[in-house]
Amino acid sequence: MVKENKPALVYKPKPVWDELKPGEGQAILEFAAGYREFLSAAKTEREAVDFFVARAREHGFGPFSPPAGSLQPGDRVCFVNRNKGLLLARVGKRPFSAGVMLIGAHLDAPRLDLKPNPLYQEDQVALFKTHYYGGIKKYQWLTQPLALHGTTVLGDGTVRRMVIGEAPGDPVLTITDLLPHLAKDQMEKKMAEAVPGEGLNLLAGGLPAEAEKDPAKEKDRCKKALLALLYHNYGMTEEDFLTSEWQAVPAGTARDVGLDRAFIGGYGQDDRSCCYTAVEALLGLGIPDRTAMVLLVDKEETGSDGNTGMRSRFFENALTEMIYAAAPEPGLSPELVSRRCLFNTRALSADVTAALDPNFPEVVDKRNVARLGYGVAVSKYTGSRGKYGTSDANPEFMGEVRRIFHQAGVKWQSGELGKVDQGGGGTIAQFLAVYGMDVLDCGVPLLSMHAPFEVAHKADLYMTYLAYQAFLAASGE
Ligand code: MN
Ligand code: MN
After folding, report:
1. Are strands 445-447 and 353-354 parallel, antiparallel or unpaired?
2. What average pLDDT does this structure show over 106-132?
3. Per DSSP, what are the bridge partners of residue 63?
4. Phi, psi of 391 (to 5 degrees)
5. Pseudo-torsion of CA 414, 417, 418, 421, nearest 10°?
6. DSSP string spanning 231-244?
7. Using alpha carbons only, what angle is made at residue 396 by residues 395 and 400, rounded to the nearest 5 degrees?
8. Which residues have their alpha-adjacent CB atom under 5 A from ion ligand 1?
9. Which of 45, 201, 367, 430 is the most exposed place for a label (fewest CB within 10 A)?
């Protein structure tokens, strides 16, 4: 046996930083700087859609509207779903019936939504009632500076967008917590019960409106003053809250973390880290062999329901529009092309996974958890309680992805979400798999997932970008 050809018998994952190519360290840091700006600018699914549409437009992507039969290889198109979802596509050389190379990620992130009738006054302060969105540890959202990102539809149909708390000098909102001196009863509660959902009320104002001459009208002067302020700034009344979506999110920008700036810390990295890396990968692509697509959906954190979530037909509809606009395939009806396309498609479900946290090693299987700085993480399955609710990827497809990554020099690792029976989670993989396509979960490992300040390693972000780029460019087998 020739010694040089002997494969390594033992699998030993290595940190990305140990295996950098020339110039790659600098590329990693520069990529992270662009990502940090995106994370600071896009705090809601709407803002992320706006960001990506503008970015895609710079790269020649336009709204979809070609007449039948005119869509050509190399064309760049963009479908927006109600300002909360997005499909970007670069048309490939092969016909649609060969399937597409698809990356799907989600734009929504856990947060606090204002209730339909949010504003009230209690004692001398005005507050907003909230209903939390997605899986949060409620106590993490107390005593944080929070910004409001809102969309309001006025009575005459005018749409107002507002952001309060992000610009330097802007006021922020916050949810107060009990001082330790008086927290004896609170401290004895279970963490899940210490902060009730109805206790997540935002401190919104404390300056009373001018005193009324009629004592009967003296009530709620702080609330009235705030309503006057909202009317002055946005032309909205209290009733307009009923036709609004206002989200309270952590205020401020994403930051470098660590004395060596190894990490990015910031809100919404589940799953905007995968959205950003996927879009950047698509924008830099040449004319692909198969059509390359990036699908960004909403509502993953609440079960993928609703017409902007993965369970709606937006992707299928957009794909069908493209198939009707492409050159007809001899002997195949567009309907059959569409069915074959879905079945032959290869997809990465681009979502984050949990990284090994040195402060909490007990919740993971050390032999199977993803590690920060070891590259993009691939999860064969997610789910919980015996893989319930998962799309367990087929090893044949995983082998294909592995060869793609290997050829492109992508550093990747396997990551299982926690110990068996410790909990678990899901992604949009199972809803993509419904179409018959091959799907694999693949994304950035995170610390403090779903917290107001999540942490990712810059090397993992960059490897995720390279992985998505290699996948979209692959010709498929
Ligand atoms: Mn996610
Ligand atoms: Mn999540």
Report:
1. parallel
2. 97
3. 78
4. -110, 95
5. -120
6. HHHH---GGGGGGE
7. 110
8. 270-271, 351
9. 367
Task: Provide Rg for the chain, Cα atoms.
Answer: 24
How many residues does the structure list for the chain? 477
Beta strands 445-447 and 424-425 are: unpaired
CA 265 to mean position of chain CA atoms: 15
Dist CA 350 CA 441 (whole Å): 6
CB count within 10 Å of CB 407 equals 10
How would you classify the pairing of strands 376-379 and 412-414?
parallel
pLDDT at 210: 87
More confident residue, 3 or 13: 13
Arithmetic mean of pLDDT over the chain? 95
**Which ligand has the minimum distance to the alpha carbon of residue 451?**
2
- Looking at the CA of 449, name the nearest ligand: 2
State the distance from the centre of ligand 1 to the C-alpha of 189, rounded, in angstroms: 29
**Alpha-carbon span 81 to 12, nearest angstrom:** 43
For residues 98 and 344, the answer to whether their CB atoms sit within 8 Å is yes
Domains and CATH numbers, the chain: 16-109+267-473 (3.40.630.10), 111-250 (2.30.250.10)
CA distance linking residue 134 with residue 404, whole number of Å? 34
Q: pLDDT band at 1, cuts 50/70/90?
A: low
Question: In this predicted model, what pLDDT tens digit does every residue of 195-227 receive, in sequence order?
Answer: 999 999 999 999 999 887 887 777 899 999 999
Q: How many CB atoms lie within 10 A of CB 176?
A: 13
- For residue 300, how far is its CA from the centre of ligand 1 (angstroms)? 7
Measured distance CA(22)–CA(28) in Å, rounded: 12
Residues 63 and 88: beta-carbon distance below 8 Å: no
Distance 351 CA to ligand 1 centre (A): 5
- Distance, CA 352 to ligand 1 centroid (Å)? 6
Q: In percent, how much of the chain has pLDDT > 70?
A: 99
What whole-number distance in Å separates Cα of residue 303 and Cα of residue 104?
15
The Cβ of residue 151 has, within 10 Å, a number of other Cβ atoms equal to 16
> CA–CA separation, 332 vs 93, rounded Å?
18
Measured in Å, residue 157 CA sits from the centre of ligand 2 at 33
Structural tokens at position 396: 């044949």
The set of long-range contacts for 6-14, using a CB threshold of 8 Å and a minimum separation of 24, is 13/371, 13/374, 13/413, 14/374, 14/411
What is d(CA 243, CA 171) in angstroms, rounded to the nearest whole number?
A: 24
Closest ligand to C-alpha of residue 427 is 1
